[in-house]
Amino acid sequence: MAGARALGVLSRFTSRRYALFIGNNFRTFSMAPALLARTHVNYEVKGDVAVVRINDPSSKVNTLSVQMQREMTEVMNEVWANNAVQSAVLISSKPGCFIAGADINMIQACNSPEEVTTLSQEGQKMFERIENSPKPVVAAINGSCLGGGLEFAIACQYRVATKSKKTVLGTPEVMLGLLPGAGGTQRLPKMLGLPSAFDMMLTGRNIRADKAKKMGLVDQLVDPLGPGLKSPEERTIDYLEEVAIECARGIVSKKIPLRKEKGRMQKIQDHIMSYGFVRNQIYKTVHGKVMKQSKGLYPAPLKIIESVKTGVEQGPDAGYLAESQNFGELAKTSESAALIGLYHGQVACKKNRFGTPQKEVKTLAILGAGLMGAGIAQVTVDKGVHTVLKDTAVAGLARGEQQVYKGLNDKTRKKNITSFQRDSILSNLTGQLDYRGFENADMVIEAVFEDINIKHAVLKEVEAVVSPHCIFASNTSALPIKDIAAASKRPDKVIGMHYFSPVDKMQLLEIISTDQTSKDTIASAVAVGLKQGKVIIVVGDGPGFYTTRCLAPMLAEAVRVLQEGVDPKKLDGLTTSFGFPVGAATLADEVGIDVAAHVAEDLGKAFGSRFGGGNVEVLKTMVDLGFKGRKSGKGCYVYQPGLKTKEVNPDIGDILEKYRITPNPAVSSDSDVQYRLVSRFVNEAVMCLQEGILNGPLEGDIGAVFGLGFPPCLGGPFRFVDSFGADKLVEKMRRFEAVYGNHFTPCQLLLDHANDSSKKFHK
Amino acid sequence: MAAMMLNAMRRCSLRPSWAMRFGELSSNNVFSLSVQTKSKKTLARPGVKNIVLVEGVRTPFLLSGTTYADLMPHDLARAALQGLLNRTNLPKDAVDYIIYGTVIQEVKTSNVAREAALGAGFSDKIPAHTVTMACISSNQAMTTGAGLIAAGQCDAIVAGGVEFMSDVPIRHSRKMRKTMLSLSRAKTLGQRLGLIGSIRLAHLTPELPAVAEFSTAETMGHSADRLAAAFGVSRLEQDEFALRSHTLAKKAQDDGLLQDVISFKVPGRDIVSKDNGIRPSSMEQLKKLKPAFIKPHGTVTAANSSFLVNTRHTHIQNDILIVSCFHPGRDFVYVSQDPKDQLLLGPTYGTPKALERAGLSMSDIDVFEFHEAFAGQIMANLKAMDSDWLPRHTWVGTPPMEKFNLWGGSLSLGHPFGATGCRLVTTVAHRLQKEGGQYGLVAACAAGGQGHAMVIEAYPQ
């Protein structure tokens, strides 16, 4: 859809750039050679300092796997036993990764919570020995230091980190429905104080090295080096090692104190925190915030608070025990399984399964400098692609260029890039009103008004000026690509690229290929999308493709619910409490009532009465009155600039009154309304798989969660069917069908799953 | 060709023995040169003008805030120009053009070349302009002059550089400037009062001239420290080089080799005739200093940096000017590279190119004068030139230390950004005369990731 905002829990997914748990599928090596020689952890004694190097030979990143842990224990035992060694430095040989976390497959392979608890306790023990090491251990961090890796680092006596952009620290476990299970919930509050520790663990966000230094998470920073006698990456690691060795010696000779002088603010904070009622107030506030955001649908944040609280109030023994037990419980929850599934899906959808395109897109032209067009320009221009933004009017072009500038300037203000980088990025953007230079474009994405005639007109204009290899992509949310391609001289070069608004925030890109679209065209579109940082699903052509087609029946149902007299606020409450980050009424406003009406009508024509429900006239009347949603200031709600709270639009009461339907009490309980909305969504998704629009259930889940805000805790429509039970869903749908007819008729594939409980979308 | 050069000579009324030749002599000039082992007898090419350095002088380099404290930049430039006139007995209308390099501009004298020329009594018919290119500004002044001569525009040029660090333009904050500018446009008393009323404490924070690279926001010392680390240059190596620079400079000063320095009567103060930044110390003392930029593990300290760049840490700066009257050749290059990680590698990139242009090899060069921004930067450049860093075909080896910066360098004499290039060239000229060599090479790095290298040939006796 033109606009679907992901808020709350979903937005936490959007900032993820680094892998926490990397599924390590390389388990083919036999155990025998592993016993003979260590493959993952090695060490070298340099004078009186043991340099322990971590390097997982089978993966791009280091993970705390069984093998890694065993070798680490062996190495540390040797270090402790070696009298010539006074201290140790822990460093990764991989550029860009210290330790990216625990091995997720190791956790998933466990059969019971108890097994996971044991796993957690082993980790706790190992890190406890590091923490109590008589010889100081310095963690030298370059690259991602996440999850278990961070817990390892904070168990060390001292931390040195490179200021590289790739160096990020964080505890992203919460985003997988887990908690930091190897002492993290116990050590972080002590190191950072309760507020910062909660913030880190509950948001799971990545912290850059300079911020980490300010917080006290690392003790010293090292600048990354440029090219010198070795490549920058290699030499930076060597340099980090040299500095860390100096630190280790400094700690042994007591030149570097391990206990830092606390600042006045820190002392005051500590003093305040020593009062039990202050701490209780913090627990309460944090708990309240979590409940408000997660609606209680996510158990992990609550368990994190519980583990921290137990440790602080009842001492470390109880704390560590609570942590490991909670970790075990969480690992076996359906929420965690759903979130881990999404994580795997996200990784899979960041790969180009169509191979490398013949020609890399170096110049991308965008038609239409509206919200979408400029948004696409925004995510393209900073990837080193020459971007041409074309509009038909000076005012529109100026607005679009300003949007791109603002996006980059905001990054400058947040110090993600320098003002110089901003300017040099912008030098890649050309704004224009004509087709000058289009002969150099490798791809043209049109983001003009959703009207087949206009689309045909621009397609013809573009084909008249571009070179033969140029790809024409349409950013349409509902018009079938084959209809657009009908006007093309080379339909093999025509493809759909459906972006979601706001483009710079929404991670999903839905690519639509027709029967005529060539493989290379798809590969090229996917390559561009990946460059733009998108999570990509490639779907077949058809009215509404996948995402719009799923959303349309749900919105139709939402309109019916409104007609039945449910207040928009109540409707929003019902959807968000089911786990949607954005309520149905708000979503309609975000998408635009006019767009929704347009889509409802189009898809209604294409799919017939199955897409009925609410009366389209409701939407049309709203559009006629100017209630087009957020963009016009009024929709289901009234939007006033500067005001965060929104009130229900008083005028829609009359419209709804005019189209009032009497609700059937048999299917109008809160829960029934929720399932009426969700089951139509899910049924349509399953039907897309049945019809071959979707390539597989994984892409279906990713598309629904990242594009439409399907509850992440349910893991997407297909995982929802698996965990909820197809039979139970069908049973509910039959009940609704009895009242409303074919809107709720389950599709064949769903019935197959209902009839055979061994059938699952996800194995 | 030669006539042009001699013409210039005549106008300068100088004995040719004083002149240094840049570039080439036409081949029909027969000079018997004593050095025969060179890969090229001379850089002179038929049909191409030679550019000759006639004389170079400079006022002593002083730490900032000392004797020059109350002067203005053009005063120093003026003194050097007068010194040049005195030393060469040049008539005041003998030159066709005057070019100066400077980095931090005094806003009142933004074309400092013109102000200085007028003040020094040069004819007001001689045009003058000012150029800027960070630490190689005066190199740019010289080569710009070379271009004018080569293009047949001029016969004689004065090129120089000036930098005055005892006073720098410190500005009001942008907010304050905005308010003040609006104030000048305000029409009514009400508007004025409103604007005055809008001034807050934050408006009063002054803006100092930036010490950091604009494109990367990194200070040069910080970059030098990273560069030294990238090339594995130790603190010891840097301190040793710094000590060498100061020791050699002291010796050169005591032996009276720094002939380019002229005495300067500072109004209201004494006559200054010596550089005052040369301070040979001991390795023990150098070892005690803490890193100045990257703390606590960096290797660049106040003592192994040239003292203009690290003003904040040493509180010493200097003010200088050199003027060289010369004619430029073609055997110079400018290079530029990544301003973040290769900020100070100009000499590494420039040297092979300049040698290639001149058709010479490293062993042909008798005298090397490299700009010493930081000991770590020099050592890193030497290591880079010695390593696989450069593509093999451009590899030329490293300058031998027995020919390298033998009279001290920017580390010990001081580094007034806008003037250092002239000092390097003049020093090469004087060293070639003193040591009897034929070819000299100048190389320097500059902010913005730029660099300069130039080959100079001794004028045949």
TrEMBL record, chain A:
EC number of the protein: 1.1.1.211, 4.2.1.17
Cell compartments where the protein resides: Mitochondrion inner membrane
Sites annotated Important for long-chain enoyl-CoA hydratase activity: E151, E173
Catalytic activity: (3S)-hydroxyoctanoyl-CoA + NAD(+) = 3-oxooctanoyl-CoA + NADH + H(+); (3S)-hydroxytetradecanoyl-CoA + NAD(+) = 3-oxotetradecanoyl-CoA + NADH + H(+); 1'-[1,2-di-(9Z,12Z-octadecadienoyl)-sn-glycero-3-phospho]-3'-[1-(9Z,12Z-octadecadienoyl)-sn-glycero-3-phospho]-glycerol + hexadecanoyl-CoA = 1'-[1,2-di-(9Z,12Z-octadecadienoyl)-sn-glycero-3-phospho]-3'-[1-(9Z,12Z-octadecadienoyl)-2-hexadecanoyl-sn-glycero-3-phospho]-glycerol + CoA; (3S)-3-hydroxydodecanoyl-CoA = (2E)-dodecenoyl-CoA + H2O
Keywords per UniProt: Acetylation, Fatty acid metabolism, Lipid metabolism, Lyase, Membrane, Methylation, Mitochondrion, Mitochondrion inner membrane, Multifunctional enzyme, NAD, Oxidoreductase, Phosphoprotein, Transferase, Transit peptide
Descriptive protein name: Trifunctional enzyme subunit alpha, mitochondrial
Cellular component GO terms, alphabetical: mitochondrial fatty acid beta-oxidation multienzyme complex; mitochondrial inner membrane
GO annotation (BP), single: fatty acid beta-oxidation
InterPro entries given in the database record: 3-OHacyl-CoA_DH_CS, 3-OHacyl-CoA_DH_NAD-bd, 3HC_DH_C, 6-PGluconate_DH-like_C_sf, ClpP/crotonase-like_dom_sf, Enoyl-CoA_hyd/isom_CS, Enoyl-CoA_hydra/iso, Fa_ox_alpha_mit
PANTHER family: TRIFUNCTIONAL ENZYME SUBUNIT ALPHA, TRIFUNCTIONAL ENZYME SUBUNIT ALPHA, MITOCHONDRIAL
Matches recorded under Gene3D superfamilies: 1.10.1040.50, 2-enoyl-CoA Hydratase, Chain A, domain 1, NAD(P)-binding Rossmann-like Domain
GO molecular function terms attached to this record: enoyl-CoA hydratase activity; long-chain (3S)-3-hydroxyacyl-CoA dehydrogenase (NAD+) activity; NAD+ binding; transferase activity
From TrEMBL, chain B:
Thiolase C-terminal domain location: 330-457
UniProt cross-references to Gene3D superfamilies, sorted A to Z: 3.40.47.10
Pfam families, A to Z: Thiolase_C, Thiolase_N
GO cellular component: endoplasmic reticulum; mitochondrial fatty acid beta-oxidation multienzyme complex; mitochondrial inner membrane; mitochondrial outer membrane
E.C. number(s) listed in UniProt: 2.3.1.155, 2.3.1.16
PROSITE patterns reported in the protein's UniProt record: THIOLASE_1 (PS00098), THIOLASE_2 (PS00737), THIOLASE_3 (PS00099)
Listed pathway(s): Lipid metabolism; fatty acid beta-oxidation
Domain Thiolase N-terminal per the UniProt entry, residue ranges: 51-308
Compartment annotation: Endoplasmic reticulum; Mitochondrion inner membrane; Mitochondrion outer membrane
Superkingdom field: Eukaryota
Keyword Transmembrane appears in the UniProt entry: no
A biological process term (GO) from this entry: fatty acid beta-oxidation
Primary site of residence: endoplasmic reticulum
Enzyme class: transferase
Keyword field: Acetylation, Acyltransferase, Endoplasmic reticulum, Fatty acid metabolism, Lipid metabolism, Membrane, Mitochondrion, Mitochondrion inner membrane, Mitochondrion outer membrane, Transferase, Transit peptide
GO molecular function: acetyl-CoA C-acyltransferase activity; acetyl-CoA C-myristoyltransferase activity
Subunit architecture: Heterotetramer of 2 alpha/HADHA and 2 beta/HADHB subunits; forms the mitochondrial trifunctional enzyme. Also purified as higher order heterooligomers including a 4 alpha/HADHA and 4 beta/HADHB heterooligomer which physiological significance remains unclear. The mitochondrial trifunctional enzyme interacts with MTLN. Interacts with RSAD2/viperin.
PANTHER family to which the protein is assigned, alphabetical: ACETYL-COA C-ACYLTRANSFERASE, TRIFUNCTIONAL ENZYME SUBUNIT BETA, MITOCHONDRIAL
Role noted for this protein: Mitochondrial trifunctional enzyme catalyzes the last three of the four reactions of the mitochondrial beta-oxidation pathway. The mitochondrial beta-oxidation pathway is the major energy-producing process in tissues and is performed through four consecutive reactions breaking down fatty acids into acetyl-CoA. Among the enzymes involved in this pathway, the trifunctional enzyme exhibits specificity for long-chain fatty acids.
Protein name: Trifunctional enzyme subunit beta, mitochondrial
Source organism: Scophthalmus maximus
Species lineage: Eukaryota, Metazoa, Chordata, Craniata, Vertebrata
Gene: hadhb
